[in-house]
Amino acid sequence: MIYAAPAYSRNMGGGTEFGMEAYRYLAALYDQLMDDVDYDGWAAYYMKLLDRAGVVPARLCDCACGTGALSVRFAAMGAQVTGVDVSGEMLAVAQDRARERGVRAMFVEQDMCELRLPRPVDALVCACDGVNYLLDDDRLNAFFARAFASIKPGGALAFDVSSAYKLERVLGDGFFGEERDDVAYLWSNSFDPEARTVTMDLTFFIRRPDDLYRRVTETHVQKAHEVGHLTELLAQNGFDNIEVFGDRTFDAPKPDEQRIHFLARKR
Questions:
Q1: What is the per-residue pLDDT for 37?
Q2: pLDDT above 80 (res 132)
Q3: Burial class of 90 by CB neighbour count within 10 A (0 to 12, 13 to 18, 19+)
Q4: Which fold has domain 10-162+225-265?
Q5: Which residues, at least 6 apart from 246, have a Cβ–Cβ distance to it below 8 Å?
Q6: Is the pLDDT of residue 221 over 80?
Q7: Stretch 187-201: mean pLDDT, rounded?
Q8: What distance in Å separates the CA atoms of residue 90 and residue 99, rounded to the nearest whole number?
Q9: What are the φ and ψ backbone dihedral angles of 258, each rounded to 5 degrees?
Q10: pLDDT tens readout for residues 6-23
Q11: Contact assessment for residue 219 and residue 200, using Cβ atoms and an 8 Å cutoff
Q12: Is residue 6 a contact partner of residue 90, using CB atoms and an 8 Å limit?
């Protein structure tokens, strides 16, 4: 499994955004490298989260949807789904997935911090580190404000983040790698304690039809957000009755929790 997420990346050297560029090559590999993820369980948990808020979503927006692994599952559960992502390459895979699964879902290439939906939704979900890719309060506030505006009264926002513990202590300054038949990758991380960010430099070696390998690189940056700060910003943007849980539980996060879930309501 690779911990890159379908969301938003930034070139820290030049300071220029390149969300679409970051997944140009990873889009074709993402599902292969994430084949050990329990998406069925993850989607079911999100529906339980929404049910806790009294929401049975007829319309649902899946932000930072990536290749649509959760989007198609939400659609199969009966929701009318709009998947949003900045990567056209990832969305192309998502569209193919929906066709193969025989479900209807609409996919839109859009920055979730500038979210504009044709009509309000009952629920908005942002899974698998999407919020970690929002590196400052301007981006966080922009997303939370657009999410609030996009949700019907009585609806809910549910999202998860990789915890500060995980980004600092587990990923941190680590080095990872994996070799498969058609692809291998090297993954080097660097944690900045002042900025509270981890920069992930990934190098992929992709087998070509002639059995030679193509080398491509990508850089991803995630922010180690503090739980209290996120709940404060959610409240400032109009959400209330905000709850925080450990990884796919309904218990408070433990100190060493690696994934944290948020549930916020709109009156």
A1: 85
A2: yes
A3: buried
A4: Rossmann fold (3.40.50)
A5: 252, 253, 254, 257, 259, 260, 261
A6: yes
A7: 97
A8: 15
A9: -95, -25
A10: 332 322 222 223 333 455
A11: yes
A12: yes
User: How many Å apart are CA 109 and CA 90, to the nearest integer?
Assistant: 9
C-alpha distance from residue 153 to each of 58, 78, 122, 123, 140 (Å): 14, 21, 8, 10, 21
153-181 pLDDT per residue, tens:
999 999 999 999 999 999 999 999 989 88
Amino acid at 137: D
Angle between helix axes 88-101 and 69-76 (nearest 10 degrees) is 30
- Among 109, 39, 99, 100, CA closest to 74: 39
Burial class for 234, CB neighbours closer than 10 Å (0-12, 13-18, 19+): buried
Q: Write down the pTM of the prediction.
A: 0.89
- State which amino acid sits at residue 68: G
What pLDDT does residue 262 have? 98
Do 10-162+225-265 and 166-222 fold alike per CATH? no
Instruction: Over range 109-134, report the average pLDDT.
Output: 97
| For range 177-191, the mean pLDDT | 92
Domain ranges of the chain: 10-162+225-265, 166-222
CATH architecture label of 166-222: Single Sheet (2.20)
| Beta bridge partner(s), residue 162 | 259
Query: Any idea which residue has 């430099």 for tokens?
Result: 201
Average pLDDT over the chain, rounded to whole? 89
DSSP string, 135-196: -SHHHHHHHHHHHHHHEEEEEEEEEEEE-HHIIIIIITT-EEEEE-SSEEEEEEEEEETTTT
Question: Which residues lie closer than 8 Å to 266 by C-beta, 6 or more apart?
Answer: 148, 151, 152, 153, 154, 155, 156, 157, 238, 239, 240
CA atoms within 13 A on the CB side of 217: 5
Contacts of 241 (CB under 8 A, 6+ apart): 53, 264, 265
